[in-house]
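Quick one, tokens below. Sequence please?
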């Protein structure tokens, strides 16, 4: 914006002159000059719409120019104005309404009324001045529809009714719609969406039909030359046979927002509404078929999206691609379209192939994130279709068979059937897996399986993912973890190795760090998503199904062995994050069947990893290790928990008996000691009554050793005092809870008893002193008057 770098001369300082110049040009008698004025006004709105007014907080800089903008636009909507000037003015109208400058709905009415007046030109019989080019009528009508579409999109987003619009922290979608973090600073403007929707609602019935008619025209004009014979002989809704070629560019420039608006309208209830009469749609050629049925409406929008996304023109703007994806997501957000998509399974597979191609050819993170959102809608449609098939099959089978047997039979309706064969090109699961693999390989190239019999040795390195890359990896993993639900037991076993390979690969690549790096990687988005995926697979219903259990267990054991092996595959410069390794093992131990984790060749290395973490120099790793151990110790299956208790509980007790556990200088060190105490205390509740005295013999001395004498307590730091109070409270709780064992223990050791009694007396005396001080430290205070007088009458006596 700066004109001269040597001076602080910014364009925003000349905004009033700029608006005045645009106003003068837009209201001149020269059409070329009017077009340039409107174009300049459009750019001013785009550039300065969100600039705050420095002298009036909560207001925007362009608010003061609302009258000029309305006055500049009004002449362009007069009957004698050429069509191309009116078309340009429509775009300025939509940009102004969608910019959010006007806080009050009444401030928008003038510009809104201009757009309303333009609707008359859409109806059949409207007089249009044809000067030199008949296609200008098409340009004008499409510009009107495009402007209304952009306003409707802004209104739906503002009202929270646009399911396909996500905040991807990227370039805004068409119409410059973006979620602004500073929007809450502008008064009560957050209610503008609902108010703006009220402005659009009266025109929506006719607008929706015009949008669908325009999209039908665009679809027909997009057909390859060999299908020219199928084009209507009388032209379309907004073009004639004579203007067919000259109208194509106008449709190409207008269809994205019209498509998105039509999808939003259908999602908001358009699929449920009956088609209205096409009497108001110009040119009656086939226009009545625009909304014949739900299926027709779906296939029209779906086909336009697919054609646009399949185009070999990689130079297609990112905004247009995003609009198509948003329209697809919105379209599939309704139940009926998802049913139609799954009625012909090849449609879903073809859509996945298109999404796969987009991942390959588009580097934009916003496009790739939107691709994954659309993919989730496809999977949702497939899951609903599968559930419907199963319910129908069970209903047929239950009268003749037992319900449990029927439930097992319907699982075979999933992909893979009884053989488990997943056929590429015919399998939706395979197509989804291809998209996920492509995305993961683009983000983590090391996951790409290397060709050839002898793998090339890669140099060890560390990857640093951006926030967007982490979200993309997490999206791919969340899709993959749901795929077994779409398969039969045998089919799920067939795809499980691929999912486990990719998931453990993500853990390896995203949690590898320098050996000198103390950063904990376990909280990174890709790592948490991978761990969640492992948990989902370990608890899947097919893990316990007799038809797939044995193979499933073997594959889970293989994945666990891979995780364990990751700690050994580092180099002199890199290593796997200890906490990630720990949590990866814990996922299997806590959630996988006992048969998976109790194999000696896996159990011992797992226990050894916990031992190493307890000896780590990183106190955060030690703290998380103790917390995880407490969960494992409480595992409902004793065959899983007992080996960990036998091997690791003594190390916790050893730590608590050491001076290190009581020499505290930070919150983390205090937390480690308290968590260790709580873990040992958990073992008391798990122990059999006859062995409980032995556990108390270990815990009570630990708690007593944490007590500090009264004289030393005054000089101790805050962490030591907290540990002292916590230990005393624990001892006061254990005494009544286990009276016989506690009494026997105290009678055996006079030193423990005297130290505990001294701590109790000191605590009671401190509480007594505190009560006395609180009662004497409250002198009677005169109440301050609520109304302060100018003259002081406090010293006045009668």
């Amino acid at each position: 914006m700066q004109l001269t770098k040597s001076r602080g001369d910014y364009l925003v300082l000349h905004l009033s002159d700029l608006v005045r110049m645009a106003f003068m040009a837009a209201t001149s008698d020269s059409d070329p000059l009017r077009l340039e004025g409107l174009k300049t006004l459009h750019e001013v709105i785009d550039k300065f719409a969100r600039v705050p007014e420095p002298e009036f907080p909560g207001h925007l800089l362009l608010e003061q120019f609302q009258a000029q903008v309305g006055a500049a636009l009004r002449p362009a909507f007069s009957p004698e104005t050429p069509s191309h000037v009116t078309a340009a003015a429509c775009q300025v109208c939509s940009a102004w309404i969608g910019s959010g400058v006007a806080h009050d709905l009444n401030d928008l009415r003038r510009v809104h009324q201009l757009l309303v007046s333009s609707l008359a030109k859409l109806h059949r019989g409207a007089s249009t001045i044809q000067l030199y080019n008949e296609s200008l009528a098409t340009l004008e009508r499409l510009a009107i529809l495009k402007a209304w579409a952009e306003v409707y999109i802004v209104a739906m987003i503002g009202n929270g009714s646009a399911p396909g619009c996500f905040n991807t922290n990227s370039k805004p979608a068409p119409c410059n719609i973006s979620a602004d973090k500073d929007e809450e600073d502008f008064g009560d403007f957050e209610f503008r969406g609902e108010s703006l929707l009220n402005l659009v609602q009266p025109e929506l019935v006719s607008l929706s039909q015009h949008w669908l008619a325009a999209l039908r025209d665009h679809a027909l004009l997009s057909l390859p030359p060999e299908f020219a014979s199928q084009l209507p002989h009388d032209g379309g809704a907004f073009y004639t046979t004579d203007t067919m070629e000259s109208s194509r560019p106008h449709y190409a420039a207008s269809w994205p927002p019209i498509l998105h608006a039509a999808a939003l309208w259908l999602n908001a209830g358009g699929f449920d509404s009956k088609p209205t009469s096409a009497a108001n749609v110009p040119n009656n050629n086939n226009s009545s078929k625009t909304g014949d049925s739900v299926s027709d409406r779906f296939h029209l929008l779906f086909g336009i999206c697919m054609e646009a996304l399949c185009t070999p023109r990689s130079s297609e703007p990112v905004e247009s691609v995003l609009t198509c994806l948003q329209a697809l997501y919105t379209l599939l957000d309704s139940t009926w379209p998802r049913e139609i998509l799954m009625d012909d399974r090849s449609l879903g597979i073809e859509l996945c192939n298109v999404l796969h191609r987009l991942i390959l050819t588009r580097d934009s993170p916003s496009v790739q994130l939107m691709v994954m959102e659309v993919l989730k809608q496809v999977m949702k449609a497939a899951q609903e279709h599968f559930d419907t098939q199963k319910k129908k099959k069970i209903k047929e089978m239950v009268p003749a068979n037992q319900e449990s047997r029927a439930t097992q039979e319907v699982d075979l309706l999933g992909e893979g059937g009884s053989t488990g064969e997943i056929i590429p090109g015919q399998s939706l699961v395979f197509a989804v897996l291809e998209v996920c693999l492509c995305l993961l390989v683009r983000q983590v190239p090391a996951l790409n399986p290397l060709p050839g019999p002898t793998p090339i040795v890669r140099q060890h390195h560390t990857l640093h993912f951006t926030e967007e890359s982490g979200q993309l990896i997490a999206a791919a993993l969340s899709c993959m973890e749901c795929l077994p639900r779409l398969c039969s037991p045998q089919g799920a076993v067939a795809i499980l190795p691929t999912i486990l390979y990719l998931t453990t690969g993500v853990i390896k690549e995203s949690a590898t760090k320098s050996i000198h790096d103390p950063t904990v990687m376990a909280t990174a988005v890709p790592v948490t998503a991978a761990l969640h995926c492992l948990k989902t697979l370990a608890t899947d219903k097919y893990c316990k199904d007799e038809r797939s259990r044995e193979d499933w267990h073997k594959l889970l054991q293989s994945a666990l062995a891979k995780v364990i092996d990751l700690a050994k595959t580092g180099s002199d410069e890199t290593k796997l994050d200890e906490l990630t390794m720990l949590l990866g093992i814990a996922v299997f131990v806590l959630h996988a069947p006992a048969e998976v984790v109790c194999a000696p060749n896996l159990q011992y290395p797992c226990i050894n990893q916990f031992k190493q973490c307890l000896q780590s120099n990183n106190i955060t790793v030690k703290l998380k290790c103790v917390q995880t151990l407490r969960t494992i110790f409480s595992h409902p299956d004793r065959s899983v928990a007992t080996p960990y208790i036998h091997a690791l509980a003594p190390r916790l007790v050893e730590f608590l008996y050491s001076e290190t556990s009581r020499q505290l200088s930070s919150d983390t060190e205090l937390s480690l000691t308290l968590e260790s105490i709580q873990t040992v205390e958990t073992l008391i509740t798990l122990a059999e009554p006859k062995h409980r005295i032995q556990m108390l013999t270990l815990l009570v001395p630990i708690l007593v050793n944490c007590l500090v004498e009264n004289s030393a307590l005054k000089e101790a730091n805050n962490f030591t005092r907290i540990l002292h109070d916590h230990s005393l409270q624990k001892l006061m709780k254990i005494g009544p809870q286990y009276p016989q064992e506690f009494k026997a223990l105290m009678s055996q050791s006079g030193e423990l008893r005297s130290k505990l009694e001294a701590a109790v007396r000191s605590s009671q005396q401190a509480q007594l002193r505190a009560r006395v001080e609180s009662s004497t430290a409250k002198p009677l205070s005169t109440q301050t008057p609520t109304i302060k007088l100018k003259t002081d009458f406090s010293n006045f006596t009668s």
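The first helix runs from residue 15 to 26. Confidence is low (pLDDT under 50) at residues 124-132, 168-192, 284-291, 452-459.
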